[in-house]
Amino acid sequence: MSAHADLLARHKAVLPGWLALYYDEPIEIVRGEGRRVTDAEGNQYLDFFAGILTNAVGYDIAEISDAVRAQLSNGVVHTSTLYLIRQQVELAEKIAELSGIPDAKVFFTNSGTEANETAMMLATQFRRSNQVLALRNSYHGRGFGTIAVTGNRGWSASSLSPVNVSYVHGGNRNRGPFKDFTDADYIRACVADLREVLATATAGDVACMIAEPIQGVGGFTTPPDGLFKAFKEVLDETGILLIADEVQTGWGRTGEHFWGIQAHGVVPDMMTFAKGLGNGFAIGGVVARGDVMDSLTANSISTFGGNPISTAAANATLDYVIEHDLQANALKLGTKLMNGLRHVGDENPVVGDVRGKGLMIGVELVEPGGDEPSARAAVKVLEETRKRGLLIGKGGLNGNVLRLAPPMTLTEPEADEALEILAESIAVTNEELSR
Ligand code: PMP
């Protein structure tokens, strides 16, 4: 048995069966540099999934490694969040300022799940209600609260969570009953649905709405700009808090704005974040209105949340994103990729939709000649791109959406290289499915 096959057998023996691995022959990544990773067999890949968007800036970035090494050289990996941690305070100051939320305060966690659990804990405490609104097709994590607001049957089917959740429309723009509407009519229909849900399915005293500005796991579904402003106007009538889950959309990835929610011209009451902030180091958190954050009267602490290593990495990552204006790069190269992919789509009926913002691009695949979601096409494109040296992601309720989200340091030649591989891989898939 090869070393690779042996590792896979051991993985299967000791890790849960539902912990799915990508590819017929799963990959073991052993090195990274820039936007490229190398597997245990020496194959190199351009990484267009960036560890599910955790790698905001790229691999082996000196500024980030140096910041972590400097902290390690002090001999302190972690003591306790019961003590002052200088870089935690500095990071909180930066995020509070960037958030645009008035009197913002920040609490750090280790993951996006914990960030959303914390946000919902704050909202339910502040509003004295366990009623929560979420969008259909959403993903917010796999804790007992977050799984309840995850409106995606593939991820939340086994939840017996006690959170009282009602789902509203607005999550999956080009599927469902409003898919053929104009953007303006779509927003009107979603607002009418929200009002209907509030009047019929809830007792009125709802704590919060939690929503992704662009749904990540749901397939990079992108609502029309302004949807969340229209929602917020309804929520504000009775003081319902809006939580923007920026776990995938934060840090300039969407190009036009630093946070995904800003495309809607609205400031939420809370934002949650994780993934890209640590460029691979585990960190998440909540930034909230001061009165909401301070409404908690009991003690709360995260043992590791905001620790010296993760906050050192996060400060260095955030500084890098801002100093190199990676948001502008995301807009420029995202636009280029999107245009290129639309062109590929024109020639290949297997492409049903190309959507997203900045370097968060979804390519929805359908059975050629129709509108039926094609999971088999997505599996095939993933294998074909891998063969040609490109790693990409997939998602969507039906597993039929390609997810493209490279590190934001992507260069123009790398964008061209990826486009060429994608064009070939999609054409091969289109041909096979059309036979
Ligand atoms: N929110 C969103 C939008 C996510 O995409 C994810 C992870 N895919 C989470 C929350 C949960 O984050 P984590 O896996 O770090 O707990």
UniProtKB/TrEMBL annotation:
Q: Which keywords does the record carry? A: Aminotransferase, Pyridoxal phosphate, Transferase
Cofactors demanded by this protein = pyridoxal 5'-phosphate
Q: Name one GO molecular function term.
A: alanine-glyoxylate transaminase activity
Origin: domain of life: Bacteria
Q: Name one Pfam family in it.
A: Aminotran_3
Q: Does the keyword Transferase apply?
A: yes
Provide the E.C. number(s) assigned to this enzyme. Answer: 2.6.1.44
The answer, when asked if Chaperone is one of the entry's keywords, is no
Provide the assembly information.
Homotetramer.
Q: Which family does it belong to?
A: Belongs to the class-III pyridoxal-phosphate-dependent aminotransferase family.
Per its record, how is this protein called by name?
A: alanine--glyoxylate transaminase
Organism whose genome encodes this protein: Kutzneria kofuensis
